[in-house]
Amino acid sequence: MSEHRALNRRVVTLPFMLLGVLFLIALYYLGVRFVNGMGFVTNLNGGYAWGLWVVYDIVIGTALACGGYALAVVVYVANKGKYHPLMRPALLASLLGYGLGGLGAFIDMGRYWQFYNILLPWHMNFNAVMLEVGLCVAAYILVLLIEFAPVALEKFGNTNLRQKLNKVLFFFIALGVLLPTMHQSSLGSMLIAMGHKVHPLWQTLYLQPLLAVLTAFTMGFAVVVFEASLSSVGFGRPSETPLLSGLGKAIVGLIAVYLLFRFGEVVVQGKLGLLFAGDLGSLMFLLESALFIYPMVVLMSPGARSNSRLLLWSAVSMLFAGSLYRLNAFLLTYNPGPGYSYFPSVPEIMVTLGLVALEVMVFLYVVKRFPVLHGEKRA
Amino acid sequence: MAENDFDFSGLEKRLGVSRRTFLKFCTGVAASLGLSSNAAMAMAKAVADPKRRPPVIWLHGQECTGPTEALLRCEQPTLEHLLLDLISLDYHQTLDTGAGHQVEEIKKRSMQENKGKYLLVIEGAIPVKDNGIYCKIAGETMLHLTHEAAEHAAAIVAYGSCASWGGVQAAAPNPTGAKGAPQVLEGKTVVTIPGCPPNPANFIGTVLYFVTYGKLPPIDELGRPKWAYGRLIHENCYRRPHFDAGRFATEFGDKGHREGWCLYKMGCKGPETYNNCPSLEFNNLGGGVWPVGVGHPCFGCSEGGVGFNKPMFALADVKTHTPPNMFPPIEDRQQSSGVTAGAAALVGVAVGAALGASAMVTKKLGEQEKQQD
Question: Which of B213, B228, B243 corresponds to the end of one domain?
């Protein structure tokens, strides 16, 4: 039998109902959006065609959903089997994050009824980075579903199909490593296409894909730490700290490489002066860098790595750092020209919050009803 | 041979253009065909090397000589020179200096000498009713001449709508039974370059491809080169955004027409006509010189069953998806309503909740650790 077990607890709890309320509010605004159009609910305008929905739900949301990707690289590529217990919850979070990313893209699409055209080969523009992201994310959602399928099959006791699936699963695991590398780097390439509208501190024509994939990868590790800490407290489960501290080490290395390229680019391109300009761009850059540097410095010492609280705060700092990096580049310091301004409207924020609430609700339900969390007792 | 070593001086003299202009032209043609810059160089060499000039037999049937006229009036750097330099035009009823039995003799001799090597270009429709007696050249029917010339041709190109599918001659009631070359020459591969008149760039690109690679470019089931006729006019039309947004001109000179809106409701056949007019335009003048560009609906001149068949103001049968009947209004917003108190508070609450939850979890993690100690 599997070492994974369902939690078998009550699903409808008070927090669950509160999340449900948030989701219902989002549903209401989504109804308005589909009946009356985008203009009724969002603050998008001619200069800011991408607002909170794209930047949070897709760009940041899929990066936050990189836990499955980062762990897959560690477990299957680097062959560190001891991290396998963390795999299933990470995969679930990835599946939900990407699923809602896809949903977010659909919601944000002005002419959503033309959505299917991206799948028709004769309508494809193979030079478009958008096509790469769209198809790759869609393919990855399918791959995640297949990777997660053994959990459902285990629950419903279909061992025959499970054995068959296990024989070909290696192929999908390989895809599950390849696809995020492709589209997470392409999400960075989108900034290249935006040219001068992107603040010089965030615009680089050469490193955009690398920076995007590095931060997504690091956020993947951070989100595994975050999620494991939360479920250990929330469900009163044994602490996973010994395992997580190993991931902390990986985070340090990745952030170091990232900062080397990030600052190296700024120095080589002669943009160091912008750092001290004292405007929004420079302040945001400094704040963002501080959020990156904090986890790196803290997690450098083995003592801090085995401290569950410092580990969690480092992960949170890393998550904010990666999110802020994307938010800065795509929205906060983004300048589409004179006369344009954007701040998300209340309905926009409520829809995003509602979708996140839905994600958490589904996560809680699946964890309580399906064998996702590792059952073994560890001290 | 390195590319830079190649000697273009002979060509410069013959064509009267600089090497630079010539290479630019070849690159342009290669790019419209969707080929790489290597292909441009290969084309340039093929043109510069006179040994490889294929002999061409050019037949005229029922037509107005529009395709040839369009070719001759081309503004591209000496395009007609290039074409005449690229091929050995052994027989062409409009351009031949000689006349009568003399040119017919030359044609027969050329076809005999170059058996299986010459390029056959057909311009104009071929009447088949009453054994084709409605179009005769030098006492022979066009029907017979076509079959005769096609017999040993290396490749056959039908140039213009008449040769491609019958054109205006084949329009109802079609008294002479006019047909296009592919219908007459069943079983043979005929490349069609439809259009009334056809874009000379589509012809020259196809011929350059043939001369360079010795084979025909990829074609669709109607024989049209895919590089030129692979997309609907509608797909690359610069009025397309108006179509999608539901902004239509409804009569000549109305507000929509003056503002350059979509001409679909005036009977534009762009949504069912395959051609590259929106990207190449016409006569190399630039500035939107092609029917839709100057405010006239496309009438589907290059599409069999549309041009000369459908009434001018009949609605096109949209091959891509149709837009809904109702559109939400499009606001030209510059500013959003700015930061509202509610929105700012919500963002604060969301970020605060994330941090607060982390703090709570930290506290509990600490308690857990104490218990374990």
Answer: B228
The per-residue pLDDT for range B91-143, each reduced to its tens digit, is 988 888 888 888 999 999 999 999 988 999 999 999 999 999 999 998 999 99
**Helices H, strands E: what count in chain A?**
14, 2
In this structure, are B150 and B97 located in the same domain?
Answer: yes
Does one domain contain both B188 and B161? Answer: yes
B95 CB within 8 Å of a chain A CB: no
- Considering only the beta carbons, identify the residue of B324, B334, B343 that sits closest to A349: B343
Q: Is residue B149 domain-shared with residue B262, that is, in the same domain?
A: no
pTM, entire model: 0.64
3-state SS string over B44-111? HHHHHCHHHCCEEEEEECECCCHHHHHHHCCCCCCHHHHHHHHCEEEEECCCCCCCHHHHHHHHHHHH
Which residues from chain B sit within 8 angstroms of residue A350, using beta carbons? 346
In a domain, B139, yes or no: yes
- Compute the Cα dihedral for A213, A217, A222, A227 and give only its sign: positive
Cβ pair A340:B335 closer than 8 A: yes
Based on the structure, what is the number of domains in chain B?
Answer: 2
Identify the CATH number of the domain in which residue B311 sits.
4.10.480.10
ipTM: 0.80
Q: Which of B202, B228, B254 is the last residue of a domain?
A: B228
Give residue B158's domain range: 54-228
Closest CA to A227 of A311, A305, A149, A299: A311
